Amino acid sequence: MSHGLPDYSVAAPSSTIFPVLDTGELAARLGAPSVFDRRGNLLFQDDFSNGLGLWETLVYSAEDIWSLVAGNAPAGGFSASAFLAHGNDSFAFLRKYIGYPGVSRCGFEVSFAMGTTVRTLQCQFYLTVDGYAYSAYWVYNNNTHDLIFYYGDGKSVTLDSDLYIFNGLLKWQTAKVVLDFEELEAVRLIFNEREHDLSGYELTKGGATDENYLMTLVGFYQEFGVDSDGYLDYVIVTQNEV
After folding, report:
1. What is the distance between the alpha carbons of residues 239 and 41, in angstroms, rounded to a whole number?
2. Tens place of pLDDT per residue across the chain (242 aa)
3. How do the residues of the chain divide into helix, strand and coil, expressed in percent and rounded to 5?
4. In this predicted structure, what is the pLDDT of residue 31?
5. CA distances from 116 to 24, 55, 128, 174, 206 (A)
6. For the purposes of burial, counting CB atoms within 10 Å of the CB of 85, is it exposed (0-12), middle (13-18) or buried (19 or more)?
7. Are both 133 and 232 inside the same structural domain?
8. Same domain for 92 and 194?
9. Which CATH number characterizes residue 194's domain?
10. What are the DSSP calls for 50-87, one per residue?
11. Are residues 6 and 107 in the same domain?
């Protein structure tokens, strides 16, 4: 492309007028990694363009399968597709361990789409602090239409009820949770274009561990006795959130 002209422009001569390290215009053209919530510093992102190799797949049975789907992804060329066989309580999750970041406010963002027979979407977020794994998770119930946040010692709060979202492969939504691993409490959950204040909800303290890690877990449950399908894309993990 010619400097200062549209990406598709070939109607003018061009020359190199700045070094490769000056990537300001390129960054402006490409945009931010997330246009959903641009707070925080990027720690990890995956749009599944390179497959599922970065993820550990957890499924209920051999009939529950993760695969790639081309053509309908909101970002990149592929999305991750979970096929849930018709047995009750089938599940399919993706899990990712990420190199240990600085202890700060961290965010976990994911885009998703669900078939009508998916029961729940569930997202969990863990970080080890001072030898213990701290976490919290949220669940959207596609049957009761509730958004529930789980925290502390087996506690939960319904953040929204009668919450209907569009179902189907092309009906993509984005959600993001932010947890403060310094103060060991939740910060916010953005879902269905609404921000929920989670201040004061303490994180769940897990067992002692000698390992340091940041871990994300996201996936689907179904229980309707019929085949179900769910889709994930554009997973983003951040640190130093405000």
Report:
1. 5
2. 455 555 444 455 555 454 555 555 555 555 555 667 878 888 999 999 889 999 999 999 888 999 998 877 886 789 999 998 876 678 999 999 998 888 999 999 999 998 888 889 999 999 999 999 999 999 999 889 999 999 999 999 999 988 888 776 668 889 999 999 999 999 999 998 899 999 999 999 999 999 899 999 999 998 767 788 899 999 999 999 98
3. 5, 50, 50
4. 55
5. 43, 25, 36, 17, 34
6. middle
7. yes
8. yes
9. 2.60.120.200
10. T-STTSEEEESSTTSEEEEEES--SSSSEEEEEEE-SS
11. no
Q: Are 206 and 67 in contact (CB under 8 A)?
A: no
When divided into structural domains, the chain yields a total of 2
At position 39, the amino acid (one-letter code) is R
Partnered with residue 20 across adjacent β-strands are: none
Same domain for 20 and 56, yes or no, is: no
| Residues 109, 6 within the same domain | no
CB contact set of 142 (below 8 Å; sequence gap of 6+): 114, 116, 118, 119, 120, 121, 165, 167
The range of the structural domain enclosing residue 7 comes to 1-31
